[in-house]
């Protein structure tokens, strides 16, 4: 079976390369082990990569930060980014650290770090918006209407400035739609799902090939119980971009669910 094959490969690698292996080799083995559901062994391989990496560049920590970022594991991503930053921080690393801190709900830390980043551009403005949105959601959950209003004013100001800097970017519309969807779920405001849908559709107009925008619109329609519009939107996207696998899988899931319902 695959488990036996995986263990054989790991044992063979250690026998052939062992202490002579470079960090990139250990990383490659670790990724294979993750994909083979061998989490404990993968972490051991990653630790080996860190142990033999260049102390100045910390290439293994940087690669692992990307690896965990793609898997939305913000805690592990931040751990490796912090290690890189100890030796050689730069703007890109600091911005990614801000994003991880925000995703982890460590909003004050994220705000302080973002304040040290020079040059306000689309990325920094979207991160400002993300932090403000996180504060707004936390305030709604805590029942603090005043703090929520202040946070969302800051959010809207960041989004407005981002639009001025990059009017053709879908990212601002996507962030606005995501925020409105979350607020609707938390507050029960009946007007927000429609506003969220409009923001997602704006992103779709700016980039008709954006699967992220189409998927977000579909999720918003599901929240509203409009399953027919969800299915129609996915069918249109799949017919326009038939070679993309994820939209096709989503459409299959929708059709299966419809069969179950009826």
Q: How would you characterize the overall build of this protein?
A:
- The chain is mostly helical and 262 residues long.
- Helices cover 80% and strands 0% of the residues.
- Helix 2 runs antiparallel to helix 3 (39-52), helix 8 (122-142) runs antiparallel to helix 9 (145-165) and helix 13 packs antiparallel against helix 14 (245-261).
- The chain is globular and about 60 Å long.
- The model has no long low-confidence stretch (mean pLDDT 91).
Please give a handful of descriptors for the protein shown.
globular; mainly alpha; 0% strand; 262 residues
Helix and strand layout, with pairings?
Layout: H1 2-16, H2 23-35, H3 39-52, H4 59-70, H5 74-88, H6 91-103, H7 107-115, H8 122-142, H9 145-165, H10 171-187, H11 192-206, H12 211-223, H13 227-240, H14 245-261
User: How many DSSP-defined strands?
Assistant: 0
Which structural class matches the secondary elements?
Answer: mainly alpha
Oligomer: single chain
Mean pLDDT: 91
The coarse silhouette is globular
Binned, the helix content reads over 70%
> What's the total helix number?
14
Sheet with most strands? none
| Cα separation of the termini | 39 Å
């Amino acid at each position: 079976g695959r488990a036996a094959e995986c263990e054989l490969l790991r044992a063979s690698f250690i026998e052939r390369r062992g202490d002579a292996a470079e960090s990139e080799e250990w990383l490659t083995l670790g990724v294979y082990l993750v994909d083979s559901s061998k989490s404990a062994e993968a972490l051991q391989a990653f630790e080996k990569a860190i142990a033999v990496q260049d102390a100045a560049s910390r290439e293994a920590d940087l690669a692992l930060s990307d690896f965990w970022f793609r898997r939305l594991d913000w805690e592990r991503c931040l751990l490796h980014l912090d290690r890189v930053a100890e030796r050689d921080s730069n703007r890109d690393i600091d911005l990614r650290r801000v994003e991880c801190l925000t995703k982890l709900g460590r909003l004050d830390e994220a705000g302080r770090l973002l304040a040290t980043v020079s040059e306000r551009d689309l990325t920094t403005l979207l991160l400002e918006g993300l932090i403000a949105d996180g504060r707004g959601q936390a305030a709604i959950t805590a029942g603090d209407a005043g703090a929520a209003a202040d946070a969302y004013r800051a959010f809207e100001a960041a989004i407005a400035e981002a639009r001025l800097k990059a009017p053709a970017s879908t990212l601002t519309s996507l962030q606005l739609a995501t925020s409105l969807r979350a607020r609707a779920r938390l507050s029960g405001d009946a007007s927000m799902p429609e506003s969220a849908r409009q923001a997602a559709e704006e992103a779709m107009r700016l980039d008709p090939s954006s699967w992220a925008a189409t998927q977000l619109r579909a999720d918003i329609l599901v929240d509203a119980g409009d399953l027919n519009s969800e299915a129609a939107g996915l069918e249109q996207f799949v017919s326009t971009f038939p070679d993309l696998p994820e939209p096709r899988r989503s459409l299959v899931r929708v059709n299966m669910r419809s069969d179950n319902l009826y």
